[in-house]
Design a protein that fits this description.
Helices cover about 35% and strands about 25% of the residues. Helix 3 runs parallel beside helix 6. It has a single domain, classed as Rossmann fold (3-Layer(aba) Sandwich), CATH 3.40.50. It contains ten helices and ten strands. The longest helix is centred in the last third of the chain and has 16 residues. With about 240 residues, the protein is of the alpha/beta class. The strands form two sheets. It has a six-stranded mixed sheet, sandwiched between helices. A four-stranded antiparallel sheet has the order 2-1-4-5, covered by helices on one side. The structure holds adenosine-5'-triphosphate and magnesium ion. Adenosine-5'-triphosphate binds next to helix 1. This is ABC transporter ATP-binding protein. Pfam families: ABC_tran (PF00005). Keywords: Amino-acid transport, ATP-binding, Nucleotide-binding, Transport. Belongs to the ABC transporter superfamily. GO terms for molecular function: ATP binding.
Amino acid sequence: MSTPFLNADSMTGGYGAADILHACSLSVDKGEIAVIVGPNGAGKSTAMKAVFGMLDLRAGKVTLGGEDITGLSPQQRVHLGMGFVPQTHNIFTTMTVRENLEMGAFIRTDDFRETMDQVFELFPILHDKRNQAAGELSGGQRQQVAVGRALMTKPTVLMLDEPTAGVSPIVMDELFDRIIEVARTGISILMVEQNARQALEIADKGYVLVQGRNRYTDTGAALLADPDVRKSFLGG
Ligand SMILES: Nc1ncnc2c1ncn2[C@@H]1O[C@H](COP(=O)(O)OP(=O)(O)OP(=O)(O)O)[C@@H](O)[C@H]1O
Ligand SMILES: [Mg+2]
C-alpha cells in the first residue's frame, strides 16, 4: 500500500502544557474528501493546526506527496500546495471580497486573474459582491470568501475547519456541492465538520476523534452505517 498524498502519522502534542493530540493520525489522497468529526473540544481544530504546522509536535510526522514536512512552517506548507481555512477569523472583514481573494494570492508571482475567475465561477455571489466589504456579507457568503481565498494559491490540499458553521441547511448543501466540485478537480479535501451526518455522506473517508485520539476511522458510508458511531456521535 502506498502512502496517502497527505499523511499525518501519530501526531502528539498541544499548546505547551498537557498534550491535546495523542498519536492522532489523518490522511487524504488526491481528489478525496476526508472528514473529521467528534465532540466539541475533541481536538479537531488542533489536529488541523498540527497538520498545517501551527503546533509543535512532540511526536509524529506529516508528509505531503511523500516528502516529510513535519518541520516546515505554515508559509512553507502553503508554498508546497497546502491551503487552510481556519474555524474563526478566516476573512479580512474590512477589505472587499476582491481584496480578500487578492490577499489569498499573496504567494503568487504569476497572473492570478484566471484563478479569481474560477473562484467567481464556483461562487457567483462573490462576483456580484466583489466590491463590498467582506464583513457585510452573510455567514454563508463569508465562508465562500474564506474558501475562495484559500483556493487562490491553487492548493493541492485544501483544509477546511467547519466550513458550514452557522449557515442554514440549504446553504450547507450548496457549500458541500461546491466542495465536491473542488475535489473533482483533483484537490484533496481535509475538513472538520459539526454537521457530521451530512459531511460523512460526501466523505470518502471519515475520522471520529475523541479526546485527541482516533476513535473510529472508516469510509464515510461505513461510519454512517455503524450503530455505535450513530448512537454516540450522530444522534442515533
Ligand atoms: N490556543 C490554545 N491554547 C491552549 N489550549 C487550547 C488552544 N486551543 C484549543 N485549546 C484546547 O485544546 C482542546 C481541543 O480544542 P480544539 O479547538 O482543537 O477542539 P475542537 O474539536 O476543534 O472543538 P470544537 O468542535 O468546539 O471546534 C480544548 O481542550 C481546548 O481548550
Ligand atoms: Mg474546532
